[in-house]
Design brief:
The protein is mostly beta strands. It contains 5 helices and 22 strands.
């Protein structure tokens, strides 16, 4: 049955709250942990989104949808439909959850005078969240370049540093940031670089890394913060910004933060926090001068 979805603010607020506190939303370290996805917007594609009865799937868009059209989907928990939708007008995101084990539905999202077709179906590996982004083939989009200013990147470093506090006090803001603690280690001759945490900020196409630098030798290690980089597969991604001292004292540990944004040639990278990261820490020789950030 075709359904035109209208907003009932009170009912939707209650529904959204119920979905956000559904047990298991944050995910456990097991095969049923919801998957996080980033997908380019293309009105020629029919998106297949797996969902579940256990937890909501949140869809994030670059701007607020102007209209929603659906089949087998409802915004009223008491209405007979296989899929429940929660959305507030003007918000950039919506959430869906299956109400039956074999639920299927179709949702048409009207965004900037274009229609995007999304098919929803229960599957063993549901998506926990999907972020749709505007993809510009010819290099980095103007919007991305504007969002990746030095001031913005500094703000992202601050958000990464305070992520734990934000998650405790403002969980509705924290869940929009992908987070993982991979503990990937890169071993150097007399020190180790460990990726303790990595954060993804999708609108800025930026990954922020928290490093633990451990010096096991008897002499200090001097490195160049601006030269920090990450190798993923066979590609190297240099730091777009860094907050690091450039010095690891002997037999000590220090913490460093840095970010990578997009691809080296200026396009979107859409890198996942689930990658394996090899950290490049360029040493400074004894006779060289350390360039301190201004």
């Amino acid at each position: 049955m075709e359904l035109r979805i209208f907003a009932n603010l009170t009912a939707m607020c209650v529904t959204l709250l119920a979905l956000l506190v559904t047990p298991g939303f944050a995910g456990d370290a097991n095969p049923r942990t919801p998957v996080v996805k980033q997908l380019p917007l293309d009105e020629r594609i029919v998106y297949e989104i797996p969902i579940s009865t256990d937890a909501p799937t949140t869809l994030m868009f670059p701007s607020a949808p102007s209209a929603l059209e659906g089949a087998n989907i409802t915004n009223n928990p008491d209405a007979p439909a296989p899929v429940l939708l929660s959305h507030l007008p003007g918000r950039y995101y919506l959430s869906v959850r299956a109400l039956t084990p074999d639920a299927r539905a179709t949702l048409n999202v009207i965004l900037q005078n274009k229609t995007y077709i999304i098919r929803l179906a229960v599957a063993p590996q549901p998506y926990g969240s999907v972020t749709f982004y505007e993809d510009r083939i010819a290099g980095r989009s103007a919007a991305l370049a504007k969002r990746a200013t030095p001031e913005t990147l500094l703000a992202l470093l601050d958000r990464a540093k305070s992520h734990r506090l934000i998650r405790e006090q403002y969980p509705e803001a924290a869940w929009q940031v992908e987070h993982r603690a991979p503990n990937d280690k890169t071993q150097y001759r007399d020190f180790t670089a460990t990726v303790e945490e990595v954060f993804r900020f999708d609108p800025e196409d930026t990954l922020v890394f928290k490093l633990k630098l451990e010096n096991t030798g008897g002499t200090e290690v001097v490195y160049q913060p601006q030269g920090l980089a990450v190798r993923i597969g066979n590609r190297l991604y240099p730091a777009s910004i860094a907050d690091a001292s450039g010095l690891i004292p002997p037999h000590a540990e220090t913490t460093a933060y840095f970010a990578i944004t997009g691809t080296p040639d200026g396009g979107r990278a859409n890198l996942s926090v689930k990658n394996s990261f090899n950290v490049i820490v360029p040493r400074v020789t004894r006779d060289a001068h350390l360039i301190a950030p201004r």
